[in-house]
Write a structure and sequence with these properties.
The chain has helices spanning about 5-10, 20-30, 35-50, 90, 120-130; strands at about 20, 55, 65, 75-80, 85-90, 105, 110, 115-120. The strands form 3 sheets. A 3-stranded antiparallel beta sheet has the order 1-3-2. Strands 5-4-8 form a 3-stranded mixed beta sheet. A two-stranded antiparallel ribbon has the order 6-7. It is an alpha+beta fold. Bound molecules: zinc ion (2 copies).
Amino acid sequence: MTPQRRAVAEVLDGENVHLSAEAVHLAARRTLPEISLATVYNTLNELASMGEVKEVSAGGGPRLYDPNVDNPHHHLLCTSCGDLRDVPVEASGIELPVGPVPGQLDGFVLTGVDVTFRGVCPACAASVSV
Ligand SMILES: [Zn+2]
Ligand SMILES: [Zn+2]
């Protein structure tokens, strides 16, 4: 494992971790000050193609990288503060299709599916109701 990959992997660890490439870059520079954003992008692409991280898009923001690949989960997005949390499939009531879906639909080759629940997190709900 290269120092670059280790620095990126250390940032991307745990549950409820969804970081943009820029955020990964910022955090990785704490352990590897000379790491460039381009290297972070390359490393993230490598980790994604190895299945070590998952790319998540939610809420129209930048693409996020999610290290929680061992526990199949959906996402819960707070539309107020943008917090993105993991929702275990069991708790969501929606089954996750098994792996990338092969096949074609109107000429589209399907490679995956994302389920994102939207709502307001407890902290935002509390500040609104005061
Ligand atoms: Zn919130
Ligand atoms: Zn996640």
